[in-house]
Amino acid sequence: MEKPRRAVVVTGFGPFGEHAVNASWIAVQELEKLGLRDDVDLHVYEVPVEYQTVQRLIPALWKKHSPQLVVHVGVSGMATTVTLEKCGHNVGYKGLDNCRFCPGSQCCVEGGPECIDSIIDMDTVCKRVSALGLDVTVTISKDAGRYLCDFTYYTSLYQSRGRSAFVHVPPLGKPYTAEQLGRALQAIIEEMLDVLEHSEDKINCQHEH
């Protein structure tokens, strides 16, 4: 039986602050060149660093593609590794975006849970990618930083009931090249799809008995 085609959406961010070139979008474009496995349709988007655009765009992407998984990629000036974020946070958004705006309530979803975890087991993904012997170090984090990265992640997790992931990359050359980041994203997303499919097989088996 041929596997049904699946959509995967991957986003990177546009420029902001001192990041005139945003490593996350460069890395996503490298990933697009490499592609994912054969049964996956990859759709990439550059997201502007604007709260209100994110709130409109994320639901629109889910509606348009009905993806199996959405992976958001962002840059962190403090990161020296490729970092898998476990969860998104609802409250504490005080930083102004590129439009000099921040949410009046300082939260993503009024009345939403404080924290939403991805349904993907990031520890497993991290272990598997680390075992591949790529020239990139992968680590785990529970704090995506309460700016547009965290805001986007929470919005997406809320929308998708946890079928989203977030990956932080360091700025280009600190220490990784665009190619290295693209290859790391490819490996990470393929492992995420694998972990997701296995957890779904388990759920389906339980339903059948």
From TrEMBL:
Recorded catalytic activity of this chain's protein: Release of an N-terminal pyroglutamyl group from a polypeptide, the second amino acid generally not being Pro
One GO MF term: pyroglutamyl-peptidase activity
Enzyme class: hydrolase
SUPFAM superfamilies reported for this sequence: Pyrrolidone carboxyl peptidase (pyroglutamate aminopeptidase)
UniProt EC number: 3.4.19.3
Catalytic residues identified in the record: E85, C149
Subcellular locations according to the entry: Cytoplasm
Keywords noted in UniProt: Cytoplasm, Hydrolase, Protease, Thiol protease
Assembly information from the UniProt record: Monomer.
Biological function: Removes 5-oxoproline from various penultimate amino acid residues except L-proline.
Family statement: Belongs to the peptidase C15 family.
Descriptive protein name: Pyroglutamyl-peptidase I
Source organism of the structure: Grus japonensis
